[in-house]
Amino acid sequence: MTATLRRREVVQALLAERGDLLVVAGLGSTAWDCTAAGDSPLTFPLWGAMGAAAMIGLGLALVQPARRVLVITGDGEMLMGMGSLATIGVQRPENLRIAVIDNERYGETGMQATHTAHGVDLAAVALGCRFRSARVVTQASELEAACRALRTEKGPALIQFKVLAEKLPLVLPPADGVVLTKRFRREVLGEAAGTG
Amino acid sequence: MSAGDWPGEVHGALKRAGIALVGYVPDAGHKRLIELCDADAAMRSVVLTTEEEGIGLATGAWLGGVRSALLMQSSGVGNCVNVLGMVRECSIPLLLLVTMRGEEGEFNPWQVPMGQATRAVLESMGVSVRRVVMAHEIAQSVTAAAELAFERGMAVAVLIAQQVIGFKSFQEQAAQ
Questions:
Q1: Cross-chain Cβ contact B67/A63 below 8 Å
Q2: How far is CA A46 from the centre of its chain?
Q3: N or C: where does chain A have the smaller number of CB atoms within 10 Å of the terminal CB?
Q4: Superfamily of domain B6-175
Q5: Between chains, do A49 and B66 touch, taking CB under 8 Å as contact?
Q6: Domain residues of chain A, as ranges?
Q7: ipTM of model
């Protein structure tokens, strides 16, 4: 599949007019993409825990059922946590969506091919795991409708965006995990964030 | 609740500690406690494909303001190691209830290496560990562990000794 989309434009579009959307950003390029679109206390960018992004999204979605939760992560990160698609498919939270920014590469380690470069289809896996919707998006003309779908269609939903394998300038979020955790909780919970 | 009903006591301790979400991989030693959590309308229970997923689940729940607990066997501790780095770096409160294998009474030699390494693996990743050998002491240990976790922002594991579970063969385990 020939990619034409640019990853920063996709993530920018996903986070435009985000309102009170809760975002979990997978480690590496997708965390940098989210920061390039604008750092927010309601984004929890990962610097490690590869494979955990979707499950953090599930935990959030289950305990905050009135809020929309979007996991933005890479193909390599999603592949490492593929079992979590099955776990999400059992719980089926309507407020959880996943955007896989799929450049078919491990961008942080030297642009080696991931399984998706060999045709492994994460959207098909998600459908097989009882997601309510999942598809692959390759064209800029589909981007607006895809972003709308991730806002409005009932979850769990997954869209795999095929993007160009680009080396882009790093735009780093804060790295202090305690700061990231506290600011997220304060923004979501207000004063109650201070108590366990 | 009978005097020997430690799963019932632990379920009560979890409720009193404000635990509203429980993640688990099905396990013989936790069978009764899992059933109690599944049946509790005030507790969301989430079945996982691997224990590692539970660390993400607990982190997400904490970010959203809810206390959770994870139930696993000692073999599952090995599946969690790298993601425990996130728990430590972010000071996520974590409560693990671990049924031990590979201890006295083990019938499967392949359980021995991870069982023997469980405490060291947890402690090496910054998890505070306490091991309980008496059934009637488990619930109070869980209460104390939950307090440490959620009032002090720590990761705490309660190891439940294999002698509490007491299976001596595959046949006995399957028949429970």
A1: no
A2: 11
A3: N
A4: Thiamin diphosphate (ThDP)-binding fold, Pyr/PP domains (3.40.50.970)
A5: no
A6: 7-194
A7: 0.97
